[in-house]
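User: My collaborator and I are trying to settle a disagreement about how two of our proteins should look. Neither of us wants to argue from intuition anymore, so we agreed to look at predicted structures for both before our next call. Could you fold the first one, then the second, and keep them clearly separated?

Assistant: That sounds like a sensible way to settle it. I'll keep them separate. The first protein:
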Amino acid sequence: MVDVRNVRGGSGLDPIRAELDELLDSVQVATAQATEAFFASYDEDPDPARLASWLIPRCWREIDYVYLLNEEIRRYGMQFERRHITLLAKQSFQEAEHYDMVGKAIESLGGEVPTTVPAEAEPWSRFLWECLDRHPLSAVAAWNLSETSASGSFEPTFRGAERHGLDEVTRIYKQIEKDEKFHVGLGLQMMATYVHTDEDRDEILRAMRGMRDIAWRTFSPESVAAGRDS
């Protein structure tokens, strides 16, 4: 397996590497546990509408990334190497594909694809955009931790979907898992390349700490209940 954290780009992250790795590890574990809990509850009540509700904030995250990445390029792109502009645009395209793919899965379960931010995803989205306003690397750090958090959901999702014969959900998330490795690696490479000062490092850690406290919750059974009751 490719180690997406072993990226070239510079040594600017070295002073905070230990905390950065701890944040990424902790949110991945928390999300895996939350996803396991959701599918354990789904085993007891395998209502397609519940699964559709669980997918809705994930679907929104994909299109919100499209908006965010394009705005990152618009605001800050001329500070980056051309290759990183290209790679950010590639990620944006893949996120748009994911929005379409997850949207089709939601529709197949009888749900409606979100066209505005769902209530349970609003804290996540608001924080992400606040980070974009603060610093060129702040939003990169926030979405990097969020993407790492999401990666903790893949294996529990595959197991849960297999138990219920949800082959299309498995197929979609197998493709998303493959793309997310590129996204996580790109975010780390960009931070390693463009971090230069203690202020840069402080902004990265602030963004990651804040997103850690938000991201994994969207995978919990409680988030589904909150979304359906709102």
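The second protein, kept apart from the first:
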Amino acid sequence: MAMAVVAAILPEQITGLVLAGGRGARMGHVDKGLQLFRGKPLTAHVIERLAGQTGTLAINANRHQNDYAAFNLPVWPDLLPDFPGPLAGLHSGLTHCATDYLAAAPCDSPLLPADLVARLATALIEQQADAAIAVTVTGRIDQADFQRHPVFCLLRKTLLPSLTGYLQQDGRKMDRWFAGIRTAEVRFDDEAAFSNINTLQELRQLESE
């Protein structure tokens, strides 16, 4: 009996979202996405990495929106007050996007994989999931520890009611929300690609490397 052919998710069905809506508390409250890395703002690097992986792009930002508008992309602030975290950025993205899928990546990870979205999309379809997130493995092979990276994710637009309800109940933990929905985990071997920059010292160290 012939196997059923599962339709792939095309880039034009996906909106890419750069998450830059945080307070930047560990970076001295500067706007993290606008800090320079190798001569360009961190957000510019993430945009370049996502370009071509999705049909359209947008930025989630709550401060310095005129500066983010200079990237010539839509800027979508959180719809909830008081900087409730990355889930609020995803909520804004799902609310605004006109596509069936939303792919997200944080502004402080300029080395994200060039095949991130494609691999997340393949896993989401093959596992009949509603979301897909990146996972890396740390530690020795015989004592592998799986590190989840939920801010690197692909979501179906239909998850908006679920996320809205979770946030309305003051839910803020990404892992807890993803645990309550059908989530595919996609293993990536390059841990460095998911390195996030939390302090100015880490930014300078990564730049020197």
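Some points you might bring to the call about the second protein. Residues 1-5 have pLDDT under 50 and may be disordered. Residues 86-96 form the longest helix (11 residues).
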